[in-house]
Amino acid sequence: MPRAVVCRVLGPPEVLNLEEMPRVDLQPGQIRVAHRAAGLNFPDVLMCAGGYQHKPPLPFTPGFEGAGEVIEVAADVTAFKPGDAVVTHFRTGGYAEEAVTRAIDAWPVPAGFSFEEAASFTTAAITSYAGLIQRGKLKAGETLLVLGAGGGVGLTAVEIGKLSGAAVIAAASTPEKLAAAKVRGASHLINTKTEDLRTRLKEITGDRGVDVVYDPVGGDLFEPALRSLAFNGRLLVIGFASGTIPSFKANLALLKGASVVGVRAGEMVRRDPGLAEPRMRQLVAWAAQGHLKPHISHRFPLEQFRDAMRIVADRKAVGRVVLTM
Ligand SMILES: NC(=O)c1ccc[n+]([C@@H]2O[C@H](COP(=O)([O-])OP(=O)(O)OC[C@H]3O[C@@H](n4cnc5c(N)ncnc54)[C@H](OP(=O)(O)O)[C@@H]3O)[C@@H](O)[C@H]2O)c1
Question: Following CA atoms 92, 97, 102, 104 in sequence, which dihedral angle do they give, to the nearest 10 degrees?
Fold first, then answer.
């Protein structure tokens, strides 16, 4: 029987186990995929601890995404056949040797991508596209500040910001994370451990401020980032990896004519399914052209899923962490 990581009680990665799972029959429209890799995302850790907005019933298998080979298709599925290399994407189920998914939620592995790259591409890229393009309306010539720029969603925000023609300022806590952001197109780097964010942004933008802030971190950087917006600026609320949900004084938004914009990449398409196909098509096209490429700092076999989740939870990942099967 195929194995999967199972969360039966909420808690840290140490309470999860690898279990054999009985195969379920395919329903119409579904495919079965033998995963070769699965990508980790920070929300996996939160979900297993009970701290994420989506709370699936127990037990569940964490993981938003994977990649592998199709091994079975339902009788009505024509888009894929056994042997096809595909990317999978769901709300739970990624950390598993086999996954069942709707064919419409799967995509061919982008040209030139390994299974590991394909397995760690979708969630972060969709989040940054939803934030910067669909919600933030980022335009060519604008200035973009990416906080947590060396993390999973942060690095894709650097890439998509650059692709949009924006000048990208990357902020992160280590030289290694900043170096990864520079390779992906950041033109200015701010080390948030050793430099003052506001002072550096004033130096870089000449007092004008930044047009868009992409914030997956929250915590102490939120207010200086909000104060550093240009007039008509947008601050995109992506997440709170710091563990602290910030509060702010509303006059800061008024003074700048600014918008604080919430981003929920998955919920957007559950409410408006028509948004999904064009954004995924654009992301896969950029990936196939070599403009988007996940940076993978750590790889672990499935059996070492706890070590992999610890790297993410302990802020040590640069870009992405993947499990291999
Ligand atoms: N809105 C959406 O639709 C959506 C979709 C996917 C993910 N998210 C959210 O985006 C956030 C980032 O996800 P991710 O997968 O990119 O995570 P990640 O790879 O772990 O990156 C998060 C970054 O946050 C910073 N950070 C600051 N304090 C931290 C702490 N105590 N623990 C961990 N990281 C800390 C780190 O950057 P520095 O070390 O440079 O400070 C880290 O690189 C999460 O909050 C997640 O829930 C939102």
Answer: 100
Q: pLDDT for 153-183, tens place per residue?
A: 999 999 999 999 999 999 999 999 999 999 9
* Amino acid residing at 252: L
In whole angstroms, what is the distance from residue 151 CA to residue 320 CA?
7
Confidence at residue 65, expressed as pLDDT on a 0 to 100 scale: 97
Q: Which atom of ligand 1 is nearest to the CA of 243?
A: 31
The token pair that represents 296 in the structure block: 């993978």
Write b or e for each residue in 87-98: b if 16 or more Cβ atoms lie within 10 A of its Cβ, otherwise e.
bbbbebbbbbbb
- Name every protein residue with a CB atom under 6 angstroms from any ligand 1 atom: 41-43, 123, 127, 148, 150-154, 172-173, 177, 192, 216-217, 238-243, 263-266, 312, 315, 317
Which residue ranges in the chain fall short of pLDDT 70? none
- What whole-number distance in Å separates Cα of residue 312 and Cα of residue 240? 14
Q: How far is the centre of ligand 1, averaged over its atoms, from the C-alpha of 250 (Å)?
A: 25
CA of 318 to the centre of ligand 1 (A): 11
Residue 136's closest CA among 234, 70, 38, 218? 234
Q: Name which of 219, 43, 44 is nearest 147 in CA terms.
A: 219
Q: Closest Cα to residue 16, out of 89, 92, 100?
A: 92
Q: Write the residue with the smallest CA distance to atom 18 of ligand 1.
A: 151
Indicate which atom in ligand 1 lies nearest the CA of residue 150: 43
Cα(122) to centroid(ligand 1), Å: 16
* Angle, alpha carbons 230-233-237 (nearest 5°): 130
Give CA–CA dist 245/237, Å, rounded: 10
Q: Which domains does the chain have, with CATH numbers?
A: 3-121+294-324 (3.90.180.10), 127-266 (3.40.50.720)
